[in-house]
């Protein structure tokens, strides 16, 4: 028998409302964490990326908010501004009751507007630590009625960059409160901080053999020797043909450079990193979510928590330094039970990082050579055939029949069809493939000279 939201202790009204959002069955983390949170316990919740941790901590809070008390009663801290916005929006949709006022506060946006909202009275605040401290110190954010504190992406929040701010905030909160930490990763190093901040917490870990969801198909491509990663990315994008992809790089500069490179190659791509203004960041996220931008080149600010519907691919152009970061990055795809693809670009010196990741995930990644010209051509032809079948099933095709009839007086119908296909094919084939992407050019990826010969033969066999 499957559990219902109501059987977890949530009200009938909320359960009905959740059904409208197509939340029919609670996920594992929700069914395990919600009853504990409703009973007043502190909770450490760990579950894979994309499994609904947001609702797991939000629903019990929404259930218990006192509408008569016009003061912040719950504080949710997130590591990035976008995540604060996203969690705030998610909570508003779960609430489905405009009387529960939920406000996000974060840097980069005019503080006056946020102050005004706070003065109008809010029940739940979702924010980044810096802005929370700022508004508290100005006397605009009152923390003395806080009953619930949640650290979303807790391990990240307790990392070096945030820990001091988080401690500062915690010191301002009432001692009598409920505290919850949620994340997909909980490295053992944060245990000590957990015991410091939480009171006899219940640890809810959704059982899993691996930290990476099996719904994510992970592969790695070896960058050929002498090639730049940017050059190697082209045939990979061509073969994988992602509907939408997040491409992770290390630095802001690298993000800008790769974006220009891909734009010049004709891709629909934009960059996303901390050098952009807040409004630029927000606009890009909106365009990405609406599918107006297909590829986004991002730094790690996009690694955690972001929930972009149906994101099909995550590409690690550079592998991250930590295994946790890898898990969060690839977790931007394969969410809410959907499938996704994660790709890593590797150079020989990335091997060590790859081993670490594989050891942590207890899973070997398939390492492939970058696609050959003939593989890409085959893929394009396959696509072309699908398109032809689609056109044949449609009605517009009929309007071209008179032209075919006319040409048939001179040519064989097979030849006419083949010529039309050639024209269509030349249009989809990217310019770079016509010039410098000869199959013979792919140099061996292994530095061992012995292997050069063998891999050459295998390339020519592949043709
Ligand atoms: N019970 C449910 N039924 C259907 N969809 C759900 C349910 N719970 C959550 N979802 C959807 O699943 C998606 C992922 O949820 P959420 O962002 O909370 O994941 P997460 O566990 O916080 O992931 P991450 O570790 O990446 O932050 C969201 O789009 C959310 O709407
Ligand atoms: Mg989350």
TrEMBL record:
Residues 3-31 form the DEAD-box RNA helicase Q domain. Residues 231-378 form the Helicase C-terminal domain. Pfam families: DEAD (PF00270), DeaD_dimer (PF25399), Helicase_C (PF00271). Residues 439-463 are annotated as: Disordered. A motif (Q motif) lies at residues 3-31. Residues 34-204 form the Helicase ATP-binding domain. This is RNA helicase.
């Amino acid at each position: 028998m499957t559990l219902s939201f109501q059987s977890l202790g949530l009200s009938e009204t909320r359960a009905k409302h959740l059904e409208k959002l197509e939340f029919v069955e609670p996920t594992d983390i929700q069914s395990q964490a919600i009853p504990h949170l409703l009973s007043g316990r502190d909770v450490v919740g760990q579950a894979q990326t994309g499994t609904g941790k947001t609702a797991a901590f939000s629903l019990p809070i929404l259930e218990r908010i006192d509408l008569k008390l016009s003061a912040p009663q719950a504080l949710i801290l997130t590591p990035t501004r976008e995540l604060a916005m996203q969690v705030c929006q998610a909570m508003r949709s779960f609430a489905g009751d405009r009387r529960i006022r939920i406000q996000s506060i974060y840097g980069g946006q005019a503080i006056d507007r946020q102050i005004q909202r706070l003065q109008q009275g809010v029940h739940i605040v979702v924010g980044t630590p810096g802005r929370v401290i700022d508004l508290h110190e100005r006397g605009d954010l009152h923390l003395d009625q806080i009953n619930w504190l949640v650290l979303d992406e807790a391990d990240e929040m307790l990392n070096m960059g945030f820990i001091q701010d988080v401690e500062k905030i915690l010191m301002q909160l009432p001692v009598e409160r409920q505290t919850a930490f949620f994340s997909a990763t909980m490295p053992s190093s944060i245990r000590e901080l957990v015991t410091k901040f939480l009171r006899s917490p219940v640890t809810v870990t959704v059982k899993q053999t691996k930290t990476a969801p099996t719904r994510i198909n992970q592969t790695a491509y070896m960058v050929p020797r002498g090639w730049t990663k940017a050059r190697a990315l082209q045939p990979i994008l061509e073969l994988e043909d992602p509907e939408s992809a997040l491409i992770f790089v290390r630095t802001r500069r690298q993000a800008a450079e790769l974006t220009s490179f891909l734009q010049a190659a004709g891709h629909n791509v934009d960059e996303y990193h901390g050098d952009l203004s807040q409004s630029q960041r927000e606009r890009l996220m909106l365009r990405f979510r609406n599918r107006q931008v297909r590829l986004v080149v991002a730094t790690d600010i996009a690694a955690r928590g972001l929930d972009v519907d149906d994101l099909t691919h995550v590409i690690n152009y550079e592998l991250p330094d930590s295994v946790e970061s890898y898990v969060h990055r690839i977790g931007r795809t394969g969410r809410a039970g959907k499938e996704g693809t994660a790709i890593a670009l590797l150079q020989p010196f990335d091997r060590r990082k790859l081993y670490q990741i594989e050891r942590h995930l207890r899973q070997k990644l398939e390492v492939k050579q970058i696609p050959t010209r003939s593989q890409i051509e085959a893929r394009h032809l396959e696509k072309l055939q699908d398109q032809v079948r689609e056109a044949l099933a449609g009605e517009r095709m009929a309007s071209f029949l008179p032209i075919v009839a006319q040409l048939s007086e001179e040519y064989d119908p097979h030849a006419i069809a083949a010529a039309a296909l050639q024209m269509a094919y030349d249009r989809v084939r990217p310019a770079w493939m016509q010039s410098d992407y000869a199959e013979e050019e792919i140099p061996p990826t292994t530095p061992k000279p012995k292997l050069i010969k063998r891999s050459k033969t295998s390339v020519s066999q592949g043709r």
